[in-house]
Structure formats: structure tokens, C-alpha cells
Amino acid sequence: MKALTFTLVAEPPERLDLSPLTPERLAGIERRDIERIQIGISKHGSKVGDIFRVAGNDPLDIVFEGGSARLDRVAEGMRGGSVRVIGNVGAQGARAMRGGQLTIEGNAGPHAGSGMRGGRLEVTGNAGDHLGAPLAGELAGMNGGVLIVRGRAGAFAADRMRRGLIAVLKGSGDNAGSRMIAGTLVVAGGTGEMPGYLMRRGSILLDRAPKSLSPSFVECGAPESVFAAVIDRHLIAEGILKRPLLGIAPQKYGGDNAVLGMGEVLFPR
């Protein structure tokens, strides 16, 4: 079987909701019926056949050739299989994803990985604001899985994160890890202001000292940390980093004591 391939014919005339185009939702559907699925969200009401040239027959292996910032909700709710996007995507990529792998070979818009519960999302370019963060009105952000951004992330990465691992390799904007509930955020390349602001639990691991921390964090010295060694080995084994991030005895700050205060921010001495 050949990968089910959607080749972008031209820049879409409207924003598109690609959530119907996941492995489980396309299983057993003939190609001509796939082309009739409506994905446009404006009065144009574009269908798949209006935007993409469809080829292949394996719904467990989906490829989007060509990207656009108007491609929203790619792989939303995906539970298995593989989706690969060759190009940029819009908002909410991998929203509520539960399994499988989404690879974005370009940039991702805001709220990538929001509500993830499992699987793996990898972005080779940059990600917008609110990476892995909840939508308005939701109580928690990312709740499981692995999210890797090889480029830079915007502000509020991992906001209200509850579980899982987020790794950003070329720096993040302000308030990374704000209001974290639990889970692990790794940032190499520097962060903006106030990482961990109002975090309750969880770990923020940095490759250098942050520009600023909330005054309600307290210095905890540089204790020998088994966790630091374990996470360093894990990041290298998973191909996320090529060398250790923290070392044996990283500097540690605990907080945010303005709330529960059971979180930690670690970085090399």
C-alpha cells in the first residue's frame, strides 16, 4: 500500500479544518468520498478535492505535501498511525492527540499540542504561542505524550501543562511553563522573562540561567540529582539532544511559592 497523500494544489482561499483527515477517520473510505469531505470553515465551504490532489491508499500513513498557515487542526484527536506535513501548518496541530506520530517539516501555529494525551509531535521549525497550552476556558494543557520543537517556541509554552514532556531546542518566549501543574519542560537556547510563573508542580530544565525568575522562587543550592542524570540520558537516547543538558549537580530553584510551590527550575551551574 502507498501512503495516502494530499498534495496542496494552491494556497487555500479560507482557513481549513483538517481534523477529519486522520488515520482512524479515513479508514475504509473510498478516495472519491474523501474528496467530498468539507474542510473549509467559511462561506466558501471548500472540500478536500478543491484544495488537494489525493493519491495513495494507506490511511495509516498520511502525507500532506505543501503547507500553509491556513491548515488548522492537523491530526486532531489522532490515536495511531503516522501523519507527515511537508510545510507549515496553522493553529492547533495535534490538538487532543492520543497516539501515533505527527511530524511537521516546517513551522506550527499557536496552540500546537494543546490537550495532547499521548503520541509524539515533532516540529522541525518554530512553534507559535501557547505551545501545549489549554484553549480559553480549559483547566489543563498538555496531558501526556512527547512534543519536540527543533526551532523556537513563542510565549506561554507549556502553560498549565499536566503531564508529558515538551522539549524546545532554540529558545522560548516569556512565561515558559507558567501555571504548570506537573510534567517536564526542557528549553535549550534561552527563555524569556519569568519561566515557571505561578507553577504548582513539575520541572523546568534549562541549558542556562534564566533572565529572571519570579521573586517567589527560592534557591535550593546544587544538590546531587539522580533525576538530572536520568533525564539527560533519556533526552540523548530519544535523539532529542546530542549532549547532556544539566550535568550532575545543576543549580535548583523551588517554587512558585506564590501558589503551591512544589515545582522546580534547574539549570547548569
UniProtKB/TrEMBL annotation:
<protein>
    <submittedName>
        <fullName>Formylmethanofuran dehydrogenase subunit C</fullName>
    </submittedName>
</protein>
<dbReference type="InterPro" id="IPR017550">
    <property type="entry name" value="Formylmethanofuran_DH_suC"/>
</dbReference>
<dbReference type="InterPro" id="IPR036485">
    <property type="entry name" value="Glu_synth_asu_C_sf"/>
</dbReference>
